[in-house]
Design brief:
Rossmann fold; alpha/beta
Length: about 260
């Protein structure tokens, strides 16, 4: 049995970015540990959704634990930083925000978990945090440093295949449909395919991935992009999880993050 530690910025990021590989690892007999930098305090929530006196972060912690159970997670840890909000917002500079945290100090917190778990694999985000969110960029910086401190050699940077998304959008248009499952054109999303070194087929785990998304009901409603799309479009968009591992490639050389124990 190996141990996968997956490090994320906010509650719900885990199921969107790596939910498939998490459930796959658990089903293959490995230990899965989820570490979240913040409690998602800056998320938006519909009026009346929270109970009287309940704070959003409290609900999001509960949602994270429910989603983690669906994904086969054995341990959930929060590093205790505050959600920084979107890039350029005043909340970026608020005291205690993850964006303003010392990389070394935050990395030390994560490294202690990596050492305690004797982690074989760590997942983080690419150097742009997938789409430029400050907390996601900080996950990359902190994760890379923590792996160095803990001696965790296998570090996979979760990303999105920018070229694949564009191909899928064009295919949808060619078939007379609308490419309504992709990002705005001005959003720098993911990385070019040439930089990606690992592609994991997670289609067998999409029901778990979508159920975990549904567990984050304060942020992912039934009308959301993630849950409203037809199953076949969801499979097209989320059936492969993409990663970059330094020293691998060029091109995709890996199709799993951990060995199958069966």
């Amino acid at each position: 049995m190996a141990t996968l530690v997956t490090f994320h910025a906010h509650p719900d990021d885990e199921c969107i970015a790596t939910g498939g590989v998490m459930r796959k690892a658990a089903d293959d007999g490995h230990r899965v540990v989820l570490v979240v930098a913040t409690r998602g305090e800056m998320g938006e929530v519909a009026d009346g959704f929270l109970d009287e006196g309940e704070h959003l972060w409290q609900r999001r912690v509960e949602e994270t634990r429910a989603a983690a159970e669906l994904l086969g997670v054995s341990r959930v840890e929060f590093l205790g930083y505050v959600d920084s909000g979107m890039m350029g917002e005043p909340s970026n500079d608020a005291p205690g925000s993850f964006w303003t945290a010392s990389v070394d100090e935050a990395a030390d917190r994560l490294a202690k978990i990596l050492a305690d778990e004797q982690a074989d694999v760590l997942t983080i985000y690419d150097d742009n945090g997938g789409y430029g969110h400050p907390d996601h960029i900080q996950v990359h910086r902190v994760g890379m440093r923590a792996a160095e401190l803990a001696g965790t050699e296998r570090v996979y940077q979760a990303t999105m295949n920018r070229d694949q998304i564009r191909r899928q959008q064009q295919e949808a248009i060619d078939q007379g449909g609308e490419a309504d499952f992709g990002p705005p054109e001005d959003l720098e999303l993911g990385k070019p395919e040439a930089e990606i070194t690992a592609a994991v087929d997670v289609t067998a785990y999409l029901s778990h991935k979508r159920a975990a998304m549904r567990a984050h009901a304060s942020q992912i409603s039934e009308e959301s992009f993630f849950l409203a799309m037809p199953d076949e479009i969801f499979a097209m968009a989320f059936g492969t999880e993409w990663f970059i591992r330094q020293g691998e490639g060029p091109g995709i050389t890996e199709t799993d993050l951990l060995p199958t124990t069966a």
